[in-house]
Design brief:
alpha/beta, Malonyl-Coenzyme A Acyl Carrier Protein, domain 2, Alpha-Beta Plaits, four-stranded parallel sheet, 14 helices
């Protein structure tokens, strides 16, 4: 599998119990969970393994929990002498930070501290400027852009040909959801998140994150990272920093990112981390590519057979 990309999930993939089998059976994964606990100053591992679910769903804990579990899976397959070498890495929203760690642009300790601060800032911005997000299924992008212009909502995620996520104030979002339904959307789903992520309502979070990023040491990634905002590869430390800072208030262009990688020759996507959200989206973008999930100890063992 020479034409492979590693992709890493974002918020919404969390589930109580994630990573427990890894912790129990993989020394390399256990070290990641232990490092996260030590770096953050609380038992993130216990929260991942035992919950409670309500606490795990909170932005400030969800984001570091998903990153830690994803990197634990990555470390486990690398310790298993997996011979697959990706030509690109990418992640959805917070997953882009996981991709930075996977590509060597950021140490895990710096990455987990940075994602913890990002999560704190985003949750705080959500409290200062209340809003939310909604998935719009089956409405063409031009019509949805018109809905956003009329309501003040903003395109937040281009996830697949069928699914676009919008963000906005509570009032603007409710209006946009009603308009989208009236104009032919098949389904409109309010998402269970604590703010209007990837919109201008996150401006305060972006300003705070800029300071946190300046305090971290970035390196040029060893593997090109396809950035959410540009849907183009970044191969320099400055490029990846610019990408994650823009991402806070701008659209996650997941569909264009996947299409870029496919056009560049990628025919296999391996989603590393809890759940299988990204493989589901990629399947809707292109049904001809091979999709693999690494989200259990059995799937880690299976990666030893992939070449």
């Amino acid at each position: 599998m020479n034409n492979t990309a590693f992709v890493f999930p974002g918020q919404g993939s969390q589930v109580v119990g994630m990573g427990r089998d890894l912790f129990e059976q993989s020394t390399a994964a256990r070290q990641i969970f232990n490092e996260a606990d030590e770096t953050l100053g609380y038992s993130l591992s216990t929260l991942c393994f035992e919950g409670p679910e309500e606490q795990l769903r909170q932005t400030v804990t969800t984001q570091p929990a998903i990153m830690t579990t994803s990197i634990a899976y990555l470390q486990a397959i690398q310790a298993n002498r997996c011979r697959v070498q990706p030509v690109f890495v990418a992640g959805h929203s917070l997953g882009e930070y996981t991709a930075l760690v996977a590509a060597g642009a950021l140490s895990f300790a710096d990455g987990i501290r940075l994602i913890q601060e990002r999560a704190r800032l985003m949750q705080e911005a959500g409290e200062q400027y209340p809003g939310g997000m909604a998935a719009i299924i089956g409405l063409d992008l031009i019509s949805l852009e018109e809905v956003c212009q009329e309501t003040g909502a903003q395109i937040a995620n281009l996830n697949s040909p069928e699914q676009v996520v919008i963000s906005g104030t509570n009032q603007g979002l409710a209006w946009a959801m009603d308009l989208a339904k009236a104009r032919g959307a098949k389904r409109v789903i309010r998402l269970s998140v604590s703010g209007a992520f990837h919109s201008q309502l996150m401006m305060n979070a972006a300003e705070g994150l800029s300071k946190a990023v300046s305090e971290c040491r970035f390196a040029n990634p060893a593997i090109p990272i396809v950035a959410n905002v540009s849907a183009q590869p970044s191969s320099t430390a400055e490029g990846v920093k610019e990408g994650i800072l823009k991402q806070v208030c701008d659209c996650v262009r997941w569909q264009p990112s996947v299409e870029y990688m496919i056009d560049a020759g990628v025919d296999t996507f391996i989603e590393i981390g809890p759940g299988q959200v990204l493989t589901g989206l990629i399947k809707r973008i292109n049904r001809d590519v091979q999709l693999i999930n690494v989200n259990s100890i059995d799937s880690v063992a299976a990666m030893d057979l992939k070449e």
